[in-house]
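Tutorial handout. Part one gives the primary structure; part two gives the three-dimensional structure as tokens.
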Amino acid sequence: MTGATGRLGTIGEMWGLLAESPMHYGAGQSLGVVDLPVAREETTGYPVVFGSGVKGSLREMAAGNEATEPAESEGGQERAKDRVKQLFGEASSAGWVMVSDARLLLLPIRGLERHYWWVTCPALLERWSRDRALLGLPAASHPLPIVPTGHLLNAELTGPVFVEELNFVGELWPDLEGWAADLARLVGHEASAARLVHQLAVVADDDMRYLVRHALPVTAHNNLNESKTSVNLWYEETVPADALWYAMLMLPTDGRSSERIEAFRWLTRLVDNRPYVRFGAHETLGHGWCRVQRWEVPDGH
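Part two.
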């Protein structure tokens, strides 16, 4: 069954979103020398794709795949169009599916001792654990890490560890393999999931706040006139490829349960057939593509 019915009278899933290309989901305002920063949570400063943007991208994906209805199915494409309206709504009515923000979980950061580190922090892991409980997904069987400021928990390195321009004290993390196995549930590529255990690093919440503010790539863009003279130079911030996000999808099952569940199953079949969704700006540059990995709520929850 796709997404078992939970205590809240809903079916739900968590979708892991592994960025295949850089992503710019804009804030709509400048930030110092950065003309186009990424959108961030107001309190934490973590990059975020707000729920309205996630829902719009999923709707676009679903609308673009209406032709996946079997050709021999009478009225298949019209039914697909109806399902898009039912799930995501239209001007006169709200949609059935509830979509959360896409929340950051792992951020690729340059390091001297690694190709790059997949960096997270206790606050992000705690929030992910709470969201798992909300959906009825299995809880982590290992405790949240405790990380002093300036330290970096990892699988192999002790002593000085250099990340961006910062010098951390490396410490071995006994629960790393358990957390890595859980995080791998959201990574859709087997090879990427396998190397997670070697590149996973946990820093203190305050250190993570610094990294998300100052370690994201900033790219210069320039418009030139016919004389090859600059007429507009601007700087744009992106979240790099290989960042791992997650979003939650929930569907109330009261009333017309069977109809709603079938519509939701149709959406998940689309993702299973082609597990890619695009978010944010610069579609023509190939930005914003994410590989979707569904994590279903087990039956009985």
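Part three, for discussion. The mean pLDDT is 87. The first strand starts at residue 10 and ends at 19.
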